[in-house]
Amino acid sequence: MTNSSIVVNQASQRLVDRFGRRVSYVRLSVTDRCDFRCVYCMTEKMTFLPREQVLSLEEIGRIASVFKDLGVEKIRLTGGEPLVRRDVMALVDYIGTLGLKDFTMTTNGSQLPRFAKGLKAAGLHRLNVSLDSLDADKFKRITRTGDIEKVIAGIDAAKAAGFKKIKLNAVIMRGRNDDEVVSLVNFARQRQLDISFIEEMPLGEVSDHGRDETFCSSDEVKALIESAYPLTPISHETGGPSRYYRMSDSHSRIGFISPHSHNFCGDCNRVRVTAEGRLLLCLGNEHSVDLRAVLRQYPNSNQPLREAIIAAMDLKPEKHHFTTDGDVQIVRFMNMTGG
Ligand code: SAM
Ligand code: SF4
Questions:
Q1: Residue 41 CB less than 6 A away from ligand 2
Q2: What is 15-166+240-248+266-337's CATH number, 3.40.50.720, 3.30.200.20, 3.30.420.40, 3.20.20.70?
Q3: How far apart are CA 146 and CA 137, in angstroms?
Q4: pTM of the model
Q5: Residue whose CA lies nearest to ligand 2 atom number 3
Q6: Cys-Cys with 229: which of 2, 126, 217, 247 at CB 3.0–4.6 Å?
C-alpha cells in the first residue's frame, strides 16, 4: 500500500480493493459465545475466548463509526449469538444513531421475545433468524440445546414489534433436515417472511458429522421447493453469494446462499470483523488485520484505525476456494468468523 493510494481513498471516502470492488457492507461479530451448539457451526464442547481478548462494546462502536465514515452503508451484527452479549443493547442503540442505510442483525431468535421491541426502537431495520427445523426433536438435535418454541415465539415477537423485513436462514443437511425444506417454505409463507437456504460451509472441524456426507446443494434444495412451488428468479442484488426467487402466489422471497455451487466472489462487497477484532477480508481465506491492536494502542484517536482499514483493502483476496469433499479448509468456526 502506498501513501498516495491512502490519500486517494481517503479523499473519496470509499473502500475499494485491488479488484475494483467497493466494500460497503460490514459484518461485526459481537461475541463468539452462544446459547446453542449447532452441529454445523460448533463442536459439542467449545472453548470460548477469554473476555479480555474480546472487543469491548465501545471498541466495536468505534469500528462501526469509522466504517460508516469510510462510506459503508450496511452493518450487520452477528456472532456467536449477538443477543447473549451482556449490554449488547448499548451497542445497538449507538449504531442506530449512525444513520446507516441498512442496519441488521443475524440471531438464532432465542432471546427475541425479550429484545425484539428494544431492537426496533433502537433503529435496527431488519432481522435474519436462523431456523433449520420445525420439529422440536430435530431442532434440538441440530442445535443441541435449542428450544423451537422459544425461537417461534421470538419470530412472532419480532413481527409484533413491527419488523417488516424478517428473513429466515436454514442450513440444509442431507439426512438431517432435507425432508423439511417445503415445510420451512410453508412456515415462511404463512408468516410472510423471506427465507434463505444456505449450503453448509467447511468452517472449523465439527464433531457431529463429515461435511461431505451431509452436503446438500442449493440446486437440490431448489428442486425440492419447485415440486411444490414453481420459482421465478428476481433481481435482488446483495453483492453476496445469494440468488433470489419468488413464488406466484406469495410475497415471501426465497434465497439460496451457495458458496460452493455458485461463486459470486466477483461482486463481493463485504468484510467481517471477528469478536476479537480481526478484520477478515474474505469468509473463505485467512487474510486479516488485527484491528484490536490498533484500537488499544490508540484509545483516543480513530485516525490510525481508519488508516489500517483503508490499507487492509489491498489484502482482500479475489475469491474463496471452498470444496465439498469434507476437508476442513478454514480452521476457524463460523461462530468465530461472524456468519
Ligand atoms: N447465532 C446467530 C444465528 O445462528 O443466526 C448468528 C451467528 S451464525 C454463525 C450466522 C449464520 O451462519 C446462521 O444462519 C448459521 O446457520 C450459519 N452457519 C453457521 N455455521 C455454518 C456453516 N458451517 N455453513 C453454513 N452456514 C453456517
Ligand atoms: Fe450459535 Fe448461530 Fe452457531 Fe447456531 S449457528 S451455534 S445459533 S452461532
A1: yes
A2: 3.20.20.70
A3: 10
A4: 0.91
A5: 41
A6: 247
Closest CA to 166 of 206, 218, 126: 126
Q: Specify the ligand 2 atom closest to the Cα of 108.
A: 7
CA distances from residue 63 to 94, 177, 188, 278 in whole angstroms, order as listed? 12, 38, 34, 11
Indicate which residue's Cα is closest to atom 4 of ligand 2.
Answer: 38
Give residues (CB < 6 A) around ligand 1.
34, 40-41, 78-79, 81, 106-108, 130, 169, 171, 198, 200-201, 203, 334-335, 339
Helix, strand, coil tally for the chain in percent (to 5): 35, 20, 45
- Distance between CA 100 and CA 15 in Å, rounded? 16
Amino acid 202 reads P
Cell of 262: 455458485
How distant is the alpha carbon of residue 303 from its chain centre?
A: 27
Q: What's phi and psi for 273, nearest 5 deg?
A: -120, 125
Ligand nearest to the CA of 131: 1
- To test the pocket of ligand 1, the residue of 38, 43, 214 to mutate (highest count of ligand atoms within 8 Å of its CB) is 38
* More confidently predicted of 235 and 335: 235
For the CA of 143, the nearest atom of ligand 2: 4
42 lines ligand 2 (CB under 6 A): yes
Q: Is the CB of 38 under 6 A from ligand 2?
A: yes
pLDDT in tens, 70-122: 999 999 999 999 999 999 999 999 999 999 999 999 999 999 999 999 999 99
* Ligand number nearest to the C-alpha of 30: 1
pLDDT digits (tens, 9 = 90+) for 276-330: 999 998 876 767 899 999 999 999 999 999 999 999 999 887 776 655 554 544 5
> pLDDT of 227-261, one tens digit each?
999 999 997 555 566 789 999 999 999 999 887 76
Ligand 1 center to residue 41 CA distance, Å?
Answer: 6
